[in-house]
């Protein structure tokens, strides 16, 4: 297909309209901030994007909603690949991009996509910050984190973790808080709830079984902890994310 005629026409129109595309160096500086987990810089970029979203962007569709969706898909795809290059596991990055593209597809207002762009960028940046943080922590803390995830079904305590590392509990507590910016107890609870979110989204296990498998004394104790961390109940969370579960399964079938 010979596109020279249309290309020359479009370039002429851009000159007439004084249209200037975003410089690639500026664009990739934003991607680098996400890759490096620089959440504060990304937050600044998000505010700038919201204020100047249409500046420097080409027109990919005459329909504004579809135009924004196309730009979102392109940007999300690039960010996923940049994060993989930065150390994020490829199945995590691609599945996360699938989830956000699915959310974008369900948007019915162009501004929703502008807002979703910021949410997506910050999500990737925060995950990359955690990856960077994990790379910089001490051997004791890395092993403690591994110990926590291997024993999520237990009623884990600081004493148990300290005995595993053969450290004084007080010393481990201070070291963990210093390197992870949270208490060991809070980290354990967040790890359990994060795991529960994945189980709720991607399985049909009864909530009572999930509670027991993650070491909670009862379903009510699990529900209270889940609400404390997420602001909602396990049942409501599963209901709200059922579409993402179905989409994930469909994507897996397509990739097979």
Structure report:
With about 260 residues, the chain is mainly alpha-helical. It folds into two domains: about 5-135, no CATH class; about 135-255, Arc Repressor Mutant, subunit A. The protein has 14 helices and no strands. The protein has helices at about 5-15, 25-35, 40-50, 65-85, 90-105, 110-135, 140-150, 160-165, 170-180, 185-200, 205-215, 220-230, 235-240, 240-255. Helix 5 packs antiparallel against helix 6 (about 110-135), helix 7 packs across helix 8 (about 160-165) and helix 11 packs across helix 12 (about 220-230). The model is unreliable at about 245-255 (pLDDT under 50).
Uncertain segments of ≥5 residues (pLDDT<50)?
A: 245-256
The biggest beta sheet reads:
none
Count all strands and give the number: 0
Specify the overall morphology: elongated
Encode the helix/strand succession as letters.
Answer: HHHHHHHHHHHHHH
End-to-end C-alpha gap: 33 Å
- Oligomer category: single chain
Number of domains: 2
Percent strand equals under 5%
């Amino acid at each position: 297909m010979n596109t020279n005629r249309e290309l020359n026409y479009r370039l002429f129109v851009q000159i007439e309209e004084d249209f200037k595309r975003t410089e690639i160096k500026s664009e990739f500086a934003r991607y680098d901030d996400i890759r490096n987990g620089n959440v504060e810089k990304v937050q600044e970029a998000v505010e700038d994007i919201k204020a100047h979203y249409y500046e420097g962007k080409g027109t990919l569709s005459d329909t504004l909603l579809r135009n924004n969706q196309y730009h979102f898909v392109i940007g999300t795809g690039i960010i996923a690949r940049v994060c993989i290059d930065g150390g994020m596991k490829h199945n995590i990055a691609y599945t996360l991009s699938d989830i956000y593209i699915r959310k974008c597809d369900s948007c019915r207002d162009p501004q929703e996509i502008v807002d979703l762009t910021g949410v997506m960028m910050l999500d990737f940046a925060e995950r990359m910050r955690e990856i960077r943080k994990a790379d910089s922590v001490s051997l004791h803390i890395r092993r403690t984190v591994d110990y926590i995830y291997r024993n999520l079904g237990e009623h884990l305590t600081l004493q148990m973790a300290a005995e595993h590392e053969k450290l004084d509990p007080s010393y481990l507590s201070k070291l963990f808080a210093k390197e992870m910016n949270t208490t060991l107890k809070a980290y354990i609870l967040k790890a359990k709830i994060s795991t529960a979110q994945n189980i709720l989204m991607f399985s049909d296990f009864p909530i009572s079984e999930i509670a027991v498998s993650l070491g909670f004394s009862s379903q009510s104790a699990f529900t209270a902890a889940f609400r404390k961390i997420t602001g909602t109940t396990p049942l409501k969370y599963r209901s709200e994310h059922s579409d993402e579960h179905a989409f994930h399964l469909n994507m897996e079938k397509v990739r097979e």
